[in-house]
Amino acid sequence: MKTSDFNYNLPQELIAQHPATPRDSSRLMIVDKRNKEIEHKHFYDIVDYLKPGDLIVWNNSKVFKARLFGRLEAQDSDINDDGIPDKPLLKQQEVEIFLVRPMENQGVWKVLAKPGRRVKPGMIVRFAPDFYCEVMLKEPSGDILVQFPHSASSLREPEGSSEHRTAGQADIDEEVRQKANKYGHIPVPPYIKEQGVRNKEQLTEDYQTIYAKDEGSVAAPTAGFHFTTELIEKIKDKGVEFAEVTLHVGLGTFLPVKSERVEDHTMHSEWVELSQENADKINKAKTEGRRVVAVGTTTVRTLEGVVKIQDTRNKQISNLKFQLLDAFTGDINIFITPGFEFKVVDAMITNFHLPKSTLLMLVSAFVGDRLVGHSLGDGREFMLQCYKEAVTEKYRFYSFGDAMLIS
Fold first, then answer.
1. Looking at the predicted structure, is the pLDDT value of residue 365 above 80?
2. Which residues lie across from 111 on neighbouring strands?
């Protein structure tokens, strides 16, 4: 399968630069994948397309200000060994650091740097008098590992206790995020061009779902942008139930598929959490034949990724009582392309995605799910047809754009 098979033409003026006001006034394309039919509505009309007993599952991850601007400092007076003192020069060099995710070691984060060529192991990147990191390692991929110092209060776990070490690590990660939120910027996608002139507080509010609570994402799960408090109450009044997962959106969201063949693309792992309470809600809905409606591709990846891991585990362990989903915390790495068999998700709410992206491949796979009798290529062809009609009808695309409901 070629990556170019998932390309389409999009006029620049259709890339949304701000959310709809109110949020649920955005447009909504209703996609019937079985009959290959399309309707044009608004998001507040979604109530009419949900059924009593449906279970909506959304990603409650919250975006933090992962985009930082700092100055380079050298701990050595001549870090390049060229006979010229570097520290005075480096203090004049600004660098942008993008926090990607915390690593297993305390205070260590994976980051991206711009320009990366300036950043060398041993240097200090200072964002504020009380907030800095040391560059530890540059990986061939371009990723950089940095070490943030931590306060004594974050190191209260006893020596040798893995349980307390995990708690201490969480405290240090939280300390880094708190300072990033104080000094940093919301990492909105580069195709949103108005970010330099918009009110910073308004942008922070816009680039967040109203139900976000578990901080850790560097990009928002944007399919949830369309929900308002009033709309959620109307949906509940219809007898629709809600469950939640956490997937901290990370580096993979910003990486295009560069390989010529889809199969050669490497996905980055993502940290997810599914509580037993929410797993039970999903299991009950599936057992009773009720629909699971996933809000966004991040929710889809969480549910299908977790059940894939647990299916593998259940096949390897004998005499284990099987449940569709159990509680899970950890990394998943799942690349959903046409031909994938969906086991949990029955309907999906999603935005319009970038050409040749893994997200467009995922929704194409869902539309052409082989369980409804489509051939491998049908999902891609029909989804591109939907996108072509969306362009004709002047839908708004990408993060702040309009939505579709696929069922």
1. yes
2. 99, 144
